[in-house]
User: What shape does this take?
Amino acid sequence: MSAPHALVSLSAVYGPGDPQPIRSGLNWRVFDARADADGVHALVAESTQAAPSFSLADGDYIVHVACGLAGVAKPITVNGGPLTQKVTMNAGGLKISALLGDVAIPPARLNVQVYLPDHNDPEAKLILPNLKEGEAECLPEGAYHIVSKLLDATPGATTPTNSTVYADFKVQAGKLTSGVLRHRAATMTLKLVNSSGGEALANTSFSVLTPGGDVIREMIGAFPSLLLAEGEYVAIARHDSKTYQAIFKVISNQDRDVEVLAQQPASQ
Assistant: This one.
């Protein structure tokens, strides 16, 4: 004779005061509360429905529900009659958008990372390497550190530029936390020319440095382009065994050419 079964109906809410259940993005798993000899709990049922119902035999179970990076486990007991169980996630949503000046940055040109900070290190633990820009992610209630990196403007490129924005947000249970991060950068096209406005010299290698001498990017070509954060830089051009340099400034959203004059070689 088979063991009695009962219908178990499940639902979840973001916070304890939420009147409405979560309607999407849930992943439910039901495990046998008894572990086997290896300490493993057998998976009894699973569903991605918002409010699933399972026919379960009498006994003890562990219900686990995940929403994004938030997850909750709750023990239940089935004892011959139908059971309705509501799980509180203690989670909220985080949605990040980014602008370059006042213009929205396409998602393909952005890498947004989410860290779980500790007291001494805001980037203590990377929990989400690529938060999709403009889409809400379900996270446990708590404080988070956000790092937004603007990617190279070259089509198909995934190289981070030196334009990086940092921010801290607090996610509250049952609420959507939204933030807009503003990058300040512009695209510079480098040219080695014999005179101002002249034709760019081919077979030139370029290095872009900070005023302190840190190398940001090295490139080869007649007029390579790169996106740089707002600030001051040094361009070094090498051509026919000679080296030339120019100091230039980047102003956000002002794309322009940077000419290095092939007249007075830089000191070797």
Observations:
- The radius of gyration is 28 Å.
- The chain has no helices and 22 strands.
- The chain has a mean pLDDT of 92.
